[in-house]
UniProtKB/TrEMBL annotation:
One of its GO terms (molecular function) is RNA-directed DNA polymerase activity. InterPro entries: DNA/RNA_pol_sf (IPR043502), RVT_2 (IPR013103). This is Reverse transcriptase. Signal peptide: none annotated. It comes from the Eukaryota. Residues 25-268 form the Reverse transcriptase Ty1/copia-type domain.
Amino acid sequence: NFKEAQEKKTWRNAMEEEIKSIQKNDTWELASLPNGHKAIGVKWVYKAKKNAKGEIERHKARLVAKGYSQRAGIDYDEVFAPVAPLETVRLIISLAAQNKWRIHQMNIKSAFLNGDMNEEVYIEQPQGFIIKGEEDKVLRLKKVLYGLKQAPRAWNTRINKYFKEKDFIKCPYEHALYIKTQNNDILIACLYVDNLIFTGNNPSMFEKFKMEMIKEFKMTDIGLMSYYLGIEVKQDGDRIFITQESYAKEVLKKFKMDDSNPVCTPMECGTKLSNHEEGESIDPTIFKSLVGSLCYLTCTRPDILYAVGVVSRYM
């Protein structure tokens, strides 16, 4: 929590970096709360960002609005925003492997802060950064903030507009996939909220694309795609290998099975499962969490698909 974070320099620096990023983006302005309006609360959320090996790379502090207190039709309207499913990511990796292309990755820093605010929304001043002498005032949002109901939608509208201005064509069947062609060259970009991967046959198009993106948004150039949405990617020569080894270990540890013996067959042939009505009742949340974790693991483990499908019938 904030009180604990304030005592550690790493978290204090992370909070200051977040506030600087928000102010640089001209996200809000100090104002008096008008009659009939209610200020939405904010809170700090802390996360230690880890790499594929599970090592802490950096400390991230995010200022988040308490969006659950927003009122539909007053504080927000439409909220839906598309993201690329893992099937699309796998397809791009497959396409790159077949054509011997390289896949690059970039991350948009504080992506949601780029979305424009269309509604009149006020928030409370954040803990640790309340302006002296102006304690009774609130912040009127010009741009969206993380946690707001309309944040994903506003960001998607912003990035979609940018891609169209740069002559990208949005795939009509996959709304997070954009393609740009020049003569015989092609550039494919796939977006998952603030994570961007792109591939194609012309490295010079990559460099131009990177420079334009960095100019428009605050970006982190990760280089070759290596770790994306919990999937480890190894681009070795003409081959691309994907695995979820770290994630699989996390799942085993979470459900206290990290000491279990491994087997080659996920389920015995001819196994018939049924509800055990007289059995001891269990917490259904744990079972749902387990099946959900296994479903995500099937992205790189098609060998367990059938077994996961069977147990998911009993959600």
